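Re: the 179-residue chain
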Amino acid sequence: MAAAKVSMAITEHEGAEQERKPLVRHYQAQELLPTRRPLLHPLLDKHISAWAVVSGIMSIGLGVVFATTAEFNSFLLIVFRVPFFNGALLCIAGLLSNLLYKEPRLLPVCFRANLACLASAVVGAAIMCVDLAMVTQPHTHSHKKTEVLVLVVTVVQMILSGLLIFWIHKEQQRLRTSA
């Protein structure tokens, strides 16, 4: 919504004859006032939602690599399909967060999607920690390194989701108090 500081002075058109022709009068805004940007726009300008999508794709990719190189029943990470689920949720939440520029009414949906993403990442990190503690076979040492990498990506997902949840919650509170 645009706002303007309008000077209400009447300006006469130069060169107009006063005898036969009426004076041409018009109003002109002197200065436009800037619109107030939503609280989320500075955060979204830093492309955190794009980082969330990239992190989700990376999680899915690491899950594919891990699932193709390890035995299916040897790791809980593969059995519960943690990286695939977390990656898909984070991609959806990142895309929804990216849509907040054009559609601010998606704020509650985006908030819930990021909450679901954070919850699944916490559960996934717990499963991976249990998995890393339980596996002691020497031939799975290289798979442990890959699982640690998946755990690091999951922690990054938790941080990104937490940031988005925090800022979306602040924006929701600001909208409630201003309405």
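DSSP finds six helices and four strands in the chain.
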